[in-house]
Each structure stands twice: as structure tokens, then as C-alpha cells.
Specification:
CATH superfamily of the largest domain: PPM-type phosphatase domain
Strand order of the largest sheet: 5-4-3-8-7-6
Organism: Streptomyces katrae
Number of strands: 29
Radius of gyration: 54 Å
Protein name: SpoIIE family protein phosphatase
Number of domains: 5
Mean pLDDT: 77
CATH architecture of the largest domain: 4-Layer Sandwich
InterPro entries: ANTAR, Bact_Sigma-Reg, GAF, GAF-like_dom_sf, PAS, PAS-assoc_C, PAS-like_dom_sf, PPM-type-like_dom_sf
Keywords: Hydrolase, Transcription, Transcription regulation
Structural class: alpha+beta
Pfam family, one: SpoIIE
Strand content: 25-35%
CATH class of the largest domain: Alpha Beta
Helix content: 25-40%
Distance between the termini: 129 Å
């Protein structure tokens, strides 16, 4: 692509030559119209550029007239001669003359840029130096200071397009934190219309620069995800936003847009954009005070603000900015302290008026951040309010801290600082008021001399009276109480009014709306210097919720006590029944053997169980030995145990074998009303043959102890009782020898929570095999050394052969 040629206009700025024309075609009416419009636009742009250039040249002529004390014609001739001698264009020479005369930020940026790039710049590019661009842009701003849109177009055309920028936006900052699009260039009209107003709190690129008050550079707007004007046209473009302000005040933000990601820029480019922001700052201040950036000797007029401060009831000071030699904010001058002013250090306000803020209050620039807050409000115009801020003052070089609510706002060139030192008495009164409201407590004071009665709002609410109703005197309180409380109220009033003692009473307050409230009244007498009763003060507290809670708790306690008594009686009866049927110790004498029984009830009486045992000599001469365990606890388990034990006794008289007895007992269990289940083991011992036949229903097998050790009976089939209506049980047979010991027991002897039944049974076999002594000693040892931890009932039958 051929680069457009540049051409100089006499005394004017650089203008781009039109691109080479396309092959000629037959003109059409529409084509001629388009060409005419484009020609007119080009002429308008050239006229604007020529005007900007002429303004810069005229500014240089004025400087020469002042220095040489000559006429305008002589200054023009002198400028032409200097151009011929130096070989520079009128624009370049005019920019150099203005830079030398101004010595401002623009000249500093231009000089720095020229020094870095002049050696490498070709002669044909001299007219596009940074100095010419910046001064041309400045002349355009000065020529169109009232037209911010023209300013934006001049910035883009003269200074920003040469560095690759495609669009520029000038934002005006409002005191409420919002941003308004004051001017733009390079953006479509519909896009500018969408972004004409940005509400406070929206995190755009200019908002970041305004909040930080420093230039912000975004390399890739799409990658950062920050919305801003034109992000749809150039989603991956770069942005640079620079606060625009003077004298410590930020009037707005200059935002520059690049179409591509922005690589790190050299310092001179950043300083160029900062210089442009400084040039257009004065166009953003719609109503600048005439002396906002005046020297220290010329202070802004704050007479109207003084009248405002004097009308406030809180301590207030008026601050005006103090600028350094470079125009930067250095401090604030205390122009006025109102009549309500109270200095934390105890100084009179005459000693504070006229002083610098950091000199009068050096701690404001420390950790409290007060100076930074005032500086931010002065710069952005956004008011600041906060509660319970720590303010520190030096008193004899000792820092004293107080807590205050502060408000900072900007009014023209001045800042209004208002604070309210937190009153400890008022704060405690406020806390007391909240406590009374939360506790439903109403306070009163009654002057017995004048009859004046003072109530707080909560006391009116307790009585159900409007705030305009007359308070109820303490003597008339019985008329508003339940008649049953009259005796207690009489003692209360005599104690307070006659005996002058503090007293309290609980009563039922009858309100006019028919609601009955339970109230506690506490009162104390107030005596004068002669020890006469002068007044009574005290409080009412609504204890209705507490009263009804106590009533409910009392009823619950009574019901719980009744339930516990009934449960204890049921357990006592069940335990008596259990002990009556199965005493803890029992002996049976039979031919050729000795039978001993041990029964250990559960450790908790509320867990009366269904364990049972039975030993009986039948008419046939056989001896019935049985143990069982009904599932569950309580009276149902105890009654079920009685039924099964007696049923087995009656069935055993028929002469049937153990298996048949278990089958019949299962039928009885299955048809019981309560649908209980149980386990059992039953044996019939014949003393003549020493043969024992046995059967089991889900129970652990008996244990045989001989001289060589202990072993369990071989396990035979047998379902627990009550599970199915018809069950057939197996039957086993074993021949006993002299001195054998037979053990039948329930699972309470061996059952453990942390071990299996097999392991627990193995422990029992080891203990039984190592036992010595007579039968009673062995059974006692088994109960003592049992590892069972389920707190269940335990039954053990020991049978020892002679």
C-alpha cells in the first residue's frame, strides 16, 4: 500500500495528500454527490487544521511582540526570517517559541520526546514532531474551549492519530460519582449515545482512573473483561485513561482507544497523553471558580459557605486547597471554624482559623486517613460520610483519640468538614433505650410534691395507652390490677410510700383493650436533704412470656413426674413378679444329682427382661431342665415369660420329648396376643440311665464340664419361638458321667457388644473348664468373671452328677 504523501501549506499545519485516484469511470449523479460531500468534509478538516495552526503561529507572534517590543508586522517578518535561517516550518518554530516561553508540562514532554527521537527522525518528518502536535492540539482547545466536542476532535486529529489511536472520549465527573460523556471522536454515533451516562459504581476504564486518580492502562480490554465505550467495535483493543484536573481537582477523565492490543508504551507516550489530559482539563470544569488555582495570597471567596457553617449545630471547618509551585495540592487552609467548633486538643478556634490542616492536626495525615479522605473529596467531588471514625489530636505531644461521625463535601473550591464527637452519655442513654425496648421495660418517675409523672414510650405501650394519655399514678395502680393482686399491691405501696424502702411486686395488669399482662413493678423512694420522701422512680417489666413459660414448664414437670411414677410402679410390679417366679438363688435335690440356679437381674430396673429358668421333677421320674429369654423388656416381656414358663411346665407332664415340647411351645408363643418371640433350651434327664435328651429353639447350647475341660453340646437345628406357626425341632441325646457338670444359661452371661458370640462362648468354656470347688462356687465364679456388657438379665442352671 502506498503511504499518503504529506504537503505543507504556507503558515499552516501538515495536510495529507489525497490518495491516487482510481481509473476514471462515467460519473453518476450519486457518485458526483458523494464526491462533493467528501470534498466538503476534507475542506472543513483542512480549515480546522489551518485554524489551529494559525492560532499557534499567532501565539508565537504575540510572544515575539512582547519580547522585542515591536509591531505585529515586525513580529511576522521576524518569524519568517527565523524560519528561513533555521530551516524550519512556521509551525515548528512557533511550537519551539511557545515551549521556551511556557515552560509547562507540555514543553517538558515535547522536549523529552524530541531529545529521544530527533537523531533518528528524517528531515521530511520534522513537521510531525510531538512538539508541533501538542501545541497544535493546545491551540485547537484554546480556540474552541466552549465546544468540548471540537476539543476531542482536535485531540484525535492532531496528537493521538499519529501514535496509533483510533478514538478518544472525554468524560466529565459528577459529584455523585457518575460519569457523563462530554465529547468523543472516532466512535459511532449510536455507541456514543449508549454511553452518554455511566451511573455511579459501574467499573469502567475511566471509573478506575477516577477512583485511583492515576493513569490506567489496559493492554487488552477483552481479556480484562472491563466494559467501556467502543468495546464492541474493538473488543481486543488497548485503552489508556488519564484523570484530567487542575489544582488538585479532578474534573474528568481522558480515555484513548487503540484498535489492537496495546504493547507496553514508552514513558514519552504516557507523558504525551497526560499532557493532553492536562490541556483539556479546563474545558471539563463547567463552573470553575475564578481563583481556584490562584496563588496563596489570593484565596477563594467562601463568605456564603461561612453563613452555611454558622447555621449548623455540629463543629464545622471550611478548608481551601493550598497548591505548591507546580500547581499540585500540598495542604488545606482552615479558612473558618464555626461557633460550634470544639478542638480535641482544647485550643480556641482563633488559634485554628487560618492554620494549615497538617500543621494544626498533624495526625490527620497518619493512619486515620482523614487527609486522604479530604483530598479525595476535593479531587472527585464525591461526598464522604462515615460513623465512628477515630480522630487523633496531639496534646502536649501525647496523642488523644476520640470517636466521631464525620461528613466531608466539596462546595466549589472549598471543602466542608463536619464532625460530631460521640457523647458517651448520649451513647449510654441510647443503649439503655434499646435495652428497655428489647426487655420490654418501661421507666417512670413520679414527683410526689408537684404530682408530675414522667413515663417513657415503652411504659405507655405496656399499659396500652396512647402517648397523649395522662400517666397512671402509683397510688392508682390497684385500680388497673387484678383484684386477687390487691393484697400484694398494698404491701408494695406501703413499703415504698410509708416505710420508704425499695420494693417490687408481680401483678396482673388489666388494660383498657381487655388484654391481661403479667407485670413486675420495681420502685425506690427518692429522699430530699431533710430525708423526706420527694419522689418515686422505678420500672415496669412485662413478664407475660416468662410467666406462661413457667406455667408450661410446671405442667410439663408435673406430667413428667406422673409418667416417671407410673413407669416406676410398672417396673416394680414386673420385678416383683419376676423375683416371685425366679428367686436369685434356688436349689433342687434329685436322686443322683444336685441342681443349683443363679439369677442376676439387669443392673437398670427399668430394663426388666424376660429371662426365665425352670427345674422340675416330673411324675415319670424325669427331671425337666429349661432356660429361656423373651425378646424385649418391661411388663410385656415379664408377662410373656410367665406364660411360656407355665405352659412348658404343663406340657412336660404329658411325657412328650424335648423336641415335641419345643414344637408345642412355639405354637403357644405364636398365638400369644402380643406377638412375642423367644429363645429357649429344654432338657429331660433320666437319673436311672444318666441320659439327657435336649432340644433348642434359637438358644445357645448347654455346656458340659468334665475333668479334661469344658465343651458345648453339638449344635442342632431349632428356630426361635414365635417366628412361624408350625416348626419341627431336632432332638439331641448325651450320656453323662459321674462328676460331670452341666451348664444351661441365657445370653446375658456371654453377650458382648465388641465381640462375636463364638468368641464370647469360647471365653465361657475357658472359664468353666478352669473352675474348681463345689457347684455353688462354680456358678458364682461364672457370674463374677463374666465379660458380658449388655446389662441384660442372666440365668444359669448348674447340674452336677454324683
Amino acid at each position: 500500500m502506498t503511504r499518503p504523501r504529506t504537503a505543507r501549506t504556507p503558515g499552516g499545519p501538515v495536510a495529507e495528500a489525497p490518495p491516487p485516484s482510481l481509473p476514471k469511470q462515467a460519473p453518476t449523479p450519486l457518485g458526483r454527490l458523494v464526491a462533493t460531500v467528501e470534498r466538503l468534509r476534507r475542506e472543513v478538516r483542512e480549515a480546522h487544521a489551518a485554524a489551529d495552526g494559525r492560532a499557534l503561529v499567532e501565539l508565537a507572534k504575540g510572544i515575539l511582540m512582547g519580547r522585542l517590543n515591536c509591531t505585529p508586522a515586525a513580529a511576522a517578518r521576524q518569524l519568517d526570517e527565523l524560519c528561513r535561517d533555521a530551516g524550519l516550518s512556521p509551525l515548528e518554530l512557533a511550537a519551539d517559541i511557545v515551549n521556551q516561553a511556557a515552560r509547562d508540562h507540555v514543553s517538558e514532554v515535547a522536549a523529552e520526546f524530541v531529545e529521544r527521537t530527533a537523531a533518528a527522525a528524517p528531515p521530511t518528518a520534522r513537521t510531525s514532531t510531538l512538539s508541533v502536535r501538542l501545541r497544535t492540539a493546545e491551540s485547537g482547545i484554546l480556540a474552541a474551549a466552549a465546544d468540548t466536542q471540537a476539543v476531542a476532535e482536535s485531540l484525535l486529529a492532531n496528537a493521538l492519530t499519529p501514535i496509533g489511536a483510533v478514538a478518544v472520549a472525554v468524560w466529565a465527573a459528577a459529584p455523585d460519582g457518575s460519569l457523563a460523556l462530554a465529547a468523543h471522536a472516532g466512535f459511532p454515533a449510536e455507541e456514543a449515545s449508549r454511553w452518554r451516562h455511566v451511573p455511579p459504581g459501574v467499573a469502567t476504564v475511566p471509573r478506575l482512573a477516577l477512583r485511583e486518580r492515576t493513569p490506567v492502562t489496559i493492554a487488552d480490554l477483552g481479556h480484562e473483561g472491563i466494559p467501556s465505550i467502543g468495546h464492541l467495535q474493538w473488543p481486543g483493543g488497548g485503552r489508556m485513561a488519564v484523570p484530567a484536573g487542575t489544582g488538585g481537582r479532578v474534573h474528568g477523565v481522558l480515555e484513548v482507544c487503540w484498535p489492537q492490543p496495546l504493547p507496553p508504551q514508552p514513558p514519552q507516550i504516557r507523558r504525551q497523553v497526560e499532557a493532553l489530559a492536562e490541556l483539556c482539563a479546563h474545558t471539563l470544569d463547567t463552573a470553575p471558580p475564578a481563583d481556584a488555582a490562584a496563588p496563596e495570597g489570593l484565596l477563594p471567596d467562601v463568605s456564603e459557605l461561612i453563613d452555611l457553617a454558622e447555621g449548623l449545630h455540629d463543629p464545622t471547618v471550611i478548608l481551601t486547597p493550598v497548591l505548591d509551585s507546580e500547581g499540585r495540592l500540598a495542604d488545606f487552609r482552615i479558612r473558618h471554624a464555626n461557633s460550634r467548633f470544639t478542638d480535641p486538643a482544647g485550643r480556641p478556634r482563633a488559634d485554628v482559623n487560618g492554620a494549615l490542616l497538617l500543621e494544626a492536626y498533624p495526625m490527620a495525615g497518619g493512619d486515620s486517613g482523614l487527609f486522604d479522605t479530604i483530598e479525595r473529596v476535593h479531587a472527585t467531588g464525591e461526598p464522604f460520610r462515615a460513623e465512628r471514625v477515630s480522630l487523633t489530636a496531639l496534646v502536649d505531644q501525647i496523642p488523644l483519640t476520640s470517636v466521631a461521625d464525620i461528613s466531608v463535601s466539596r462546595h466549589g473550591a472549598a471543602v466542608l468538614l463536619i464532625w460530631r464527637i460521640e457523647d458517651e452519655t448520649a451513647r449510654l442513654a441510647n443503649l439503655l433505650q434499646h435495652a428497655q425496648r428489647l426487655g420490654r421495660i418501661g421507666g417512670f418517675e413520679e414527683d410526689l410534691t408537684t404530682g408530675e409523672i414522667t413515663w417513657n414510650s415503652e411504659l405507655y405501650a405496656l399499659h396500652g395507652l396512647p402517648p397523649t394519655a395522662p400517666p397512671v399514678p402509683l397510688r392508682d395502680l390497684p385500680d388497673h390490677a387484678h383484684p386477687d393482686d390487691s393484697a400484694a399491691l398494698g404491701r408494695f405501696l406501703r413499703a415504698v410510700l410509708r416505710y420508704r424502702r425499695p420494693a417490687s411486686v408481680n401483678l396482673r395488669l388489666r388494660r383498657s383493650d381487655g388484654i391481661l399482662r403479667h407485670i413486675r413493678v420495681v420502685a425506690e423512694p427518692v429522699l430530699d436533704a431533710a430525708q423526706r420522701l420527694h419522689a418515686v422512680r422505678g420500672a415496669y417489666q412485662d413478664i407475660s412470656a416468662q410467666h406462661w413459660t413457667e406455667v408450661a414448664l410446671a405442667a410439663t414437670r408435673d406430667q413428667l413426674a406422673l409418667t416417671e411414677a407410673e413407669s416406676a410402679e410398672r417396673n416394680r410390679l414386673a420385678l416383683q413378679l419376676q423375683h416371685a417366679i425366679m428367686p436369685p438363688h434356688h436349689h433342687i435335690e434329685a436322686p443322683g444329682l444336685r441342681v443349683a440356679v443363679r439369677y442376676r437381674p439387669a443392673e437398670t430396673e427399668s430394663l426388666v427382661g424376660g429371662d426365665w429358668y425352670d427345674t422340675l421333677v416330673l411324675p415319670s421320674g424325669l427331671i425337666l431342665l429349661s432356660v429361656g429369654d423373651v425378646a424385649g423388656h418391661g411388663i410385656e416381656a415379664a408377662t410373656g415369660m410367665v406364660v411360656l414358663r407355665n405352659a412348658l411346665r404343663g406340657l412336660a407332664v404329658t411325657g412328650a420329648g424335648p423336641a415335641q415340647l419345643m414344637s408345642w411351645l412355639n405354637t403357644v408363643t405364636h398365638h400369644l396376643t402380643k406377638q412375642v418371640t423367644a429363645t429357649a433350651v429344654c432338657g429331660l434327664y433320666d437319673p436311672r440311665t444318666r441320659v439327657m435328651r435336649w432340644a433348642r429353639a434359637g438358644h445357645l447350647p448347654p455346656v458340659l464340664v468334665r475333668k479334661d475341660g469344658a465343651r458345648a453340646f453339638p449344635l442342632i437345628d431349632g428356630l426361635l419361638l414365635g417366628a412361624l406357626p408350625d416348626v419341627t425341632y431336632a432332638e439331641g441325646e448325651i450320656l453323662l458321667e459321674p462328676q460331670d457338670t452341666l451348664l444351661m444359661f441365657t445370653d446375658g452371661l456371654v453377650e458382648r457388644r465388641d465381640a462375636s458370640v463364638q468368641d464370647s462362648l469360647a471365653d465361657l468354656l475357658h472359664t468353666a473348664g478352669a473352675g474348681a470347688g463345689d457347684l455353688d462356687s462354680r456358678l458364682d465364679a461364672l457370674l463374677t468373671e463374666s465379660w458380658s456388657d449388655t446389662d441384660d438379665d442372666t440365668c444359669v442352671i448348674g447340674v452336677q452328677l454324683d
